[in-house]
Amino acid sequence: MKESTHVDVCQRTEHKDERVKLKNKKTGEIGLTFGCTTEGGTIQVELPDGTMDSWTPDECEEV
Predict the structure, then answer these.
(1) Which domain holds residue 41?
(2) Total domain count, the chain
(3) Cα 47 to Cα 15: distance, rounded to the nearest angstrom
(4) What is the pLDDT of residues 7-53, one digit of tens each?
(5) Which stretches of 1-63 are DSSP H helices?
């Protein structure tokens, strides 16, 4: 994911309360965003089974 896309996803998640659907390119998992950390540069996602995970922008893409 490009930096501009990462910023857009985080803006929509944090400021518009939008859950963005992302796919992890390494694992194939699909998750919905629920937060971003600027310090760590990760995106927090909720997986279909209800578990939470953190992905880096370079390992995910918007679906």
Answers:
(1) 3-62
(2) 1
(3) 21
(4) 999 999 999 999 999 999 999 999 999 999 877 789 999 999 999 99
(5) 3-15
